[in-house]
């Protein structure tokens, strides 16, 4: 197995996700917990000489969230404090970090074949980016403790942020990404190793076996 050529992608680590009164405040894992792991991932990337990109979601002035130039639109100050001068910065208006941002061209220039995703939200921009990476030929890693989700309810039903996050981690690991914790990823980076990735077939077989046990 060849050594992965990684880039760390920080997705929307913006203040609007950290305001407890904001509509999109991250609920699971806790904001403080995921932020600490995001900062740890940046440190690991810097030590390894890994390219880092920072993505910000952006809406027009006056929007309820991520209004360009607003405090909520800005990258969290703790993240700004640890970012080096060479980070790639882009803004986006869709779930995928690739839609209209030019980020894929930068990734190609860096000769990257594997992207590591941290940030928010698991249930929108993380899963959207992971799925969008498949036709681009990129391997994807998602750090389960450096991402986060929100509670959701609509005409289709209601689910907690914990349910959303944990379900999507299983889904992502079944096909779209290798899911790991930040410490396990850091160990893989230090060892120039790829993270183990699941597949849909074995995940389906294991899922059937697990349900058989639960229903027995």
Characterize this entry briefly:
By secondary structure, the protein is of the alpha/beta class. The chain has one domain (6-215): Rossmann fold (3-Layer(aba) Sandwich).
The level-1 CATH class: Alpha Beta
* Number of helical regions: 7
Measured between the Cα atoms of the first and last residue, the distance is 40 Å
> What is the CATH topology descriptor?
Rossmann fold
Characterization of the model:
This protein has 216 residues and is of the alpha/beta class. The chain has a single domain (6-215), classed as Isochorismatase-like (Rossmann fold, 3-Layer(aba) Sandwich), CATH 3.40.50.850. It is built from seven helices and eight strands. It has helices at residues 31-48, 77-80, 103-109, 122-133, 161-176, 182-190, 200-215; strands at 6-11, 52-57, 88-92, 114-120, 139-148, 152-154, 157-159, 178-180. Strand 6 (152-154) and strand 7 form a beta hairpin.
Keywords, separated by commas or semicolons:
Rossmann fold; 216 residues; alpha/beta
Structural topology:
Elements: E1 6-11, H1 31-48, E2 52-57, H2 77-80, E3 88-92, H3 103-109, E4 114-120, H4 122-133, E5 139-148, E6 152-154, E7 157-159, H5 161-176, E8 178-180, H6 182-190, H7 200-215
Helix pairs in contact: 1-6, 4-5
């Amino acid at each position: 197995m060849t050594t992965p050529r990684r880039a760390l992608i920080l997705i929307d680590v913006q203040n609007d996700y950290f305001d407890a009164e904001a509509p999109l405040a991250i609920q699971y894992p806790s904001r403080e917990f995921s932020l600490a792991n995001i900062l740890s991932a940046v440190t690991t990337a810097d030590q390894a000489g890994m390219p880092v990109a920072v993505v910000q979601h952006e809406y027009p002035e006056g929007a309820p969230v991520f209004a360009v130039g607003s405090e909520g639109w800005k990258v969290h100050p703790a993240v700004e404090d640890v970012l080096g001068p060479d980070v790639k910065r882009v803004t986006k208006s869709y779930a995928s970090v690739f839609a209209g941002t030019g980020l894929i061209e930068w990734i190609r220039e860096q000769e990257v074949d594997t992207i590591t995703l941290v940030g928010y939200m698991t249930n929108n921009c993380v899963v959207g980016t992971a799925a969008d990476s498949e036709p681009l030929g990129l391997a994807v890693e998602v750090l389960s403790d450096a991402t986060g989700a929100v509670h959701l309810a609509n005409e289709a039903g209601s689910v907690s942020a914990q349910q959303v996050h944990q379900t999507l981690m299983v889904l992502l690991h079944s096909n779209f990404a290798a899911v790991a914790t930040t410490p396990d990823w850091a160990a893989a980076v230090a060892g120039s190793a790829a993270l183990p990735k699941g597949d849909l077939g074995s995940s389906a077989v294991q899922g059937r076996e697990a349900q058989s046990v639960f229903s027995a």
